[in-house]
Automatic annotation (TrEMBL):
Catalytic activity, EC: 2.7.4.3
Transferase is among the record's keywords: yes
Organism: Mytilus coruscus (Sea mussel)
Localization terms from the record: Cytoplasm
Span list, region Disordered: 104-142
Subunit structure: Monomer.
Record's protein name: adenylate kinase
Any GO MF annotation of the entry: AMP kinase activity
Purpose of the protein: Catalyzes the reversible transfer of the terminal phosphate group between ATP and AMP. Plays an important role in cellular energy homeostasis and in adenine nucleotide metabolism.
Biased composition annotated in UniProt, kind: Basic and acidic residues: 125-141
CDD domains referenced in this protein's UniProt entry, alphabetically: ADK (cd01428)
Length: 801
C-alpha cells in the first residue's frame, strides 16, 4: 500500500488492474520448475513460501483496494498461456472501446488508508558461510532450502518385535500446528478401543512431573522449550513403555513420532511392524498461525515464536524426508489438512474404517480411495489369513474377464451430446432419477483418478500439468472400468459430452461396447448464445462474451456435425429440440427412451418414516456470525442431541464418491443449487440411520432457510418439535464477521458483502419465524457464549426430550 501511495503522488492515474488469480499450489510448482531450469537462487521452496506469504499479506490488500474502486478484472491464471493471453487481449479491446474509462469506477481522490497489519513470523534464515562471502546475495536473503530426497534408512522394518502387542500401529503425522491432536481426539471418540500415544504429551508429562527434581529431565525440558528434540533413546523407551502398558489395545495411533531418520531407525529396531502413516498436509502459514493462537491460550512452553520457527524448519528438513521414505514404501496416505475439521476427519475415518473393518460389500470400483486400499491391503491384512489364501475359491483371471465381458454386453450405453448452453446436464440429472441410469462424465472420471493418488492418477497429473491432452486410450479405459464396476447396480449409462469427434465414438464402440443410441440436444446458436450471456450476468466471468461464445459454438459445430451424421446413418440418433422449457424438453426425452424400449425404473417403495415419527426435531436458525454453531456443540455435549448440518451431509456425500455424491458434485461445480429433494433425502437417510442406533433427538443446523424447506421437511421427513432462533443485531454480526475476516484472508469478508448476506437472511427468515411462532424460542445472542447457553438451557430444560 505504501507503493500505491507513492505511485499516486508521482503519477496518480490507474485505469484498470488485471489480477491473475492462481491457486497457491500451481504458483509453487511453476516456480520450482523454473528454478530447476534457471538455477535462480530465489526459486527454492523456502523462498517461494516467503514470497507467497508476502503477496498475501501485502499485495492482496492492494487488489482489494482497487476492487472497491471498480477497477479490478479477475483472470483465471490456472490455464494455458494462450487462453490467458486471449482473455487479456479481449479486455484491452473492451477498455479501448470505452476509452479506458470505467463507468462504475470511483475516482481516486485521496491516498489509500494505511492499516497496521500483524507481521507474520519470518522464515528461518541460513547462517553465514564461506560459500556466500563473495556473493552479491546477502546471507540473510538466503532461505533454508527444503530437503526433498528420502534418507537411506540403515535399519529396515523387519516386523513387530517380540514381547510387544501385535495390533496395528498407525502414525498420524503433520507439521507442528497441522491439527494432529484434534484429529486424534476425534479418532478416539469414534474408535473406542484404539489407544492414542502422543510423544509430545508423553514428554511434556514427564517434564512436568520430574523436570524440577531430576537434572536429566530438567535438561530435556530446556531442549523442548527451544523447539529441539529430546534424546532418541529417551523417546523410544517412553514409547515402548506405553505400548506395553496398553497390551490389549485394538490399535495404536502414534502422534509426533518418528520425527527424523534416527527416530525412524530406533522405531524399526525396537518396535517395528508399522502399518501405515496418515499425513495431514498443511500450508506453513496456517500452521504458524494456529500455534501462535494456541500458545496465547494454553501457555505451552514450546508455542513461542522462536520455538515455532525452529520446529517448522526441523519438520521440513528432517520429518518430510522420512515421510517420502514411507511414501516410497507405499505406506503414506496424504490428506489435505487446510479444511474444515469434520471434512478432514471424514477422510481419516474412511481410511481407518477400511483398516479396522475391511471392505464393505459393494460393487467393485465403487470406492475410489485407492491409496488407502493399497496401503492397508498390503500392511494390515495378515499374510497367513485363511480368508485370502490360495486355497479359497477365488474367481480365476479368465472368469473375471468373462464376467467383465458379460457386464459390458448387458449394459445400456447412451451417448449424450449438446452444445454449451444446451441444458444437457440438467436433463441428465432427470434421466438418472427417472430411469436409474449412471451419469458418467470423462472430466469427473479423470479428476477422481488424479485425486485417488494411484500410479495412473500420478501419470495423469504429469500430463495435465504440462498442458497436454490425456491420451484417448486412458479415457476409454476409465470409461470401461467404471461401466464394468457399476453394471451390477445400474440400469444403464449416460456418457456425457461424448463423443466430441468421430474417432472417440468409433474407438469406444470398438474397444468398450456398441452404444444403444445417441441423445442429441439440438439448440440454435442464437438460443445457446442468449443462455450463456444470461449466465454471464451472474457468473462474473470476463470470457462469457459474445465473441468467445461464437468461437466455442463454431468448434462444437465443426466437430459435432460429422458425429451426428455418422450415427444418423446407423439410425441411432434421438434428436431432442431443446429450445423449450426444461419440463417440455424432458417430456421429449421420455418419449425417446420409450421408443427405444427403455421404461422408467420401478418406483422404490416410499421410505417409511415410521421410525422417525417419535423423533424430536429442533430447527436451529441464526444469521452469519450469530454463534449458533458454538451453541449446537454445547447442546450436543449436555443433552446428547445428534447435530445434523445439510452442508456437512452434502460434503460427506460428495467425498464418498457414490453415484449420488458424483451427481451432487456436478451440480455444485456448475454453481447451481442442489435440489431440495436431494437435501431432504440426505437428511432423512442420516436421521433413519441414527434412529436405528438409538438416537431420538436431532438438531437440524441452519435449516430451514426458507418456508418451503420447513414445510416439505415436516411433510416428508419428520415433524418439527421446536425452533431455536439466535437473534443478533446486524451490527453485532457485522462486527464478528469483520473480526473473523482479519484472519480468514478472504477478500470478500468486507462490510458491503456482509450486509448483502444479512439482507438475504432477514428476507428469508421472517416468514419462517412467523410460520413457526408457536414453536419458536428466540434466544438473545448478544452476550458471551456462556450467557447465551444459559438461556438455551432454560428452553431445553422446559421440554421433555
Amino acid at each position: 500500500m505504501e507503493q500505491v501511495e507513492e505511485y499516486m503522488k508521482v503519477i496518480g492515474r490507474v485505469n484498470a488492474v488485471f489480477y491473475l488469480d492462481c491457486e497457491e499450489y500451481y504458483c509453487t510448482q511453476r516456480l520450482l520448475h523454473r528454478g530447476q531450469k534457471t538455477d535462480r537462487i530465489d526459486d527454492n521452496l523456502g523462498a517461494i513460501s516467503k514470497r507467497i506469504t508476502f503477496f498475501k499479506d501485502n499485495t492482496l490488500p492492494v487488489v482489494k483496494y482497487y476492487d472497491d474502486l471498480g477497477r479490478v478484472f479477475v483472470i483465471n491464471g490456472d490455464r494455458d498461456t494462450k487462453e490467458i493471453a486471449f482473455e487479456v487481449g479481449n479486455l484491452f479491446k473492451f477498455l479501448k472501446k470505452n476509452n479506458f474509462e470505467l463507468k462504475n469506477a470511483k475516482p481516486l481522490t485521496a491516498p489509500p488508508p494505511q492499516k497496521k497489519r500483524e507481521r507474520r513470523p519470518s522464515t528461518p534464515k541460513q547462517k553465514d558461510s564461506k560459500d556466500n562471502k563473495d556473493s552479491k546475495v546477502k546471507p540473510e536473503d538466503v532461505i533454508v532450502p527444503l530437503a526433498t530426497r528420502p534418507p537411506t534408512i540403515d535399519v529396515p522394518d523387519t516386523g513387530r518385535k517380540d514381547g510387544l502387542p501385535t495390533c496395528p500401529i498407525i502414525l498420524i503425522v503433520g507439521g507442528p500446528g497441522s491439527g494432529k491432536g484434534t484429529q486424534c481426539k476425534k479418532v478416539l471418540e469414534r474408535y473406542k478401543e484404539v489407544v492414542h500415544l502422543s510423544m509430545g504429551d508423553i514428554l511434556r508429562n514427564q517434564i512436568a512431573t520430574q523436570g524440577s527434581a531430576d537434572e536429566k529431565w530438567g535438561m530435556i525440558g530446556t531442549l523442548v522449550q527451544k523447539g529441539e528434540m529430546a534424546p532418541q533413546e529417551v523417546t523410544a523407551e517412553l514409547l515402548i513403555e506405553q505400548i506395553k502398558k496398553n497390551k490389549d489395545a485394538a490399535a495404536f495411533i502414534v502422534e509426533g513420532y518418528p520425527r527424523d531418520k534416527l527416530q525412524m531407525e530406533e522405531f524399526n529396531k525396537h518396535i517395528g511392524g508399522l502399518n501405515f502413516a496418515i499425513l495431514l498436509d498443511c500450508e506453513e502459514y496456517y500452521m504458524q498461525k494456529r500455534l501462535l493462537e494456541r500458545g496465547n491460550a494454553s501457555g505451552r512452553i514450546d508455542d513461542n515464536l522462536n520455538a515455532i520457527q525452529s520446529r517448522l524448519t526441523f519438520f521440513k528438513n528432517n520429518t518430510l524426508p522420512i515421510l517420502k521414505h514411507l511414501d516410497d514404501q507405499g505406506k503414506l496416505v496424504a490428506i489435505d489438512g487446510d479444511r474444515d475439521l469434520d471434512e478432514i476427519f471424514y477422510n481419516i475415518s474412511q481410511v481407518l474404517d477400511f483398516a479396522f473393518f475391511g471392505r464393505k460389500p459393494q460393487p467393485p470400483g465403487a470406492d475410489e480411495k485407492e491409496v488407502a486400499e493399497e496401503v492397508i491391503e498390503k500392511d494390515i491384512a495378515p499374510e497367513s489369513s485363511t480368508t485370502t489364501g490360495d486355497n479359497v475359491a477365488n474367481p480365476s483371471h479368465t472368469e473375471k474377464l468373462d464376467a467383465a465381458e458379460e457386464a459390458l454386453k448387458n449394459a445400456k450405453v447412451v451417448f449424450v451430446v449438446g452444445g454449451p448452453g444446451s441444458g444437457k446436464g440438467t436433463q441428465c440429472e432427470r434421466i438418472v432419477q427417472k430411469y436409474g441410469f449412471t451419469h458418467l462424465s470423462t472430466g469427473n472420471l479423470l479428476r477422481a483418478e488424479v485425486a485417488s493418488g494411484s500410479e495412473q492418477g500420478k501419470k495423469l497429473t504429469e500430463i495435465m500439468e504440462k498442458g497436454e491432452l490425456v491420451p484417448l486410450e486412458t479415457v476409454l479405459m476409465l470409461l470401461r472400468d467404471n461401466i464394468i464396476a457399476r453394471a451390477a447396480t445400474s440400469r444403464g449409462f449416460l456418457i456425457d459430452g461424448y463423443p466430441r469427434e468421430m474417432e472417440q465414438g468409433v474407438r469406444f464402440e470398438d474397444e468398450v461396447r456398441e452404444s444403444d443410441f445417441l441423445l442429441y440436444f439440438d439448440v440454435s446458436d442464437e438460443t445457446m448464445t442468449s443462455r450463456l450471456l444470461g449466465r454471464a450476468q451472474t457468473s462474473g466471468r470476463v470470457d462469457d462474451n459474445e465473441e468467445t461464445i461464437k468461437k466455442r459454438l463454431k468448434t462444437f459445430r465443426d466437430n459435432n456435425n460429422a458425429v451426428i451424421e455418422y450415427y444418423s446413418k446407423e439410425n441411432k440418433v434421438e434428436r431432442i429440440s431443446a429450445e423449450n422449457s426444461v419440463d417440455e424438453v424432458f417430456a421429449a426425452v421420455v418419449r425417446a427412451f420409450e421408443d427405444r424400449g427403455i421404461t422408467a425404473a420401478s418406483k422404490q417403495k416410499e421410505k417409511s418414516t415410521g421410525g422417525l415419527k417419535d423423533a424430536k426435531v429442533l430447527f436451529v436458525i441464526g444469521g452469519p456470525g450469530s454463534g449458533k454453531g458454538t451453541q449446537c456443540a454445547k447442546i450436543v455435549e449436555k443433552y446428547g442431541f445428534c447435530h445434523l448440518s445439510s452442508g456437512d451431509l452434502l460434503r460427506a456425500e460428495v467425498q464418498s464418491e457414490s453415484d449420488r455424491g458424483k451427481r451432487l458434485n456436478e451440480i455444485m461445480e456448475k454453481g447451481e443449487l442442489v435440489p431440495l429433494d436431494e437435501v431432504l433425502a440426505l437428511l432423512r437417510d442420516a436421521m433413519e440411520k441414527k434412529v436405528s442406533e438409538g438416537v431420538k433427538c436431532f438438531l437440524i443446523d441452519g435449516y430451514p432457510r426458507e418456508l418451503e424447506q420447513g414445510e416439505r421437511f415436516e411433510k416428508e421427513v419428520a415433524g418439527c418439535t421446536g425452533v431455536l432462533y439466535f437473534e443478533v443485531s446486524d451490527d453485532t454480526m457485522i462486527q464478528r464477521l469483520l473480526e473473523r475476516g482479519k484472519t480468514s484472508g478472504r477478500v470478500d469478508d468486507n462490510e458491503e458483502t456482509i450486509k448483502k448476506r444479512l439482507e438475504t437472511f432477514h428476507n428469508q427468515t421472517k416468514p419462517l419465524i412467523d410460520h413457526y411462532k408457536d414453536k419458536s424460542n428466540i434466544i438473545k445472542a448478544e452476550g458471551t457464549v456462556d450467557e447465551i447457553f444459559t438461556e438455551v438451557q432454560k428452553y431445553m430444560d422446559s421440554k421433555k426430550w
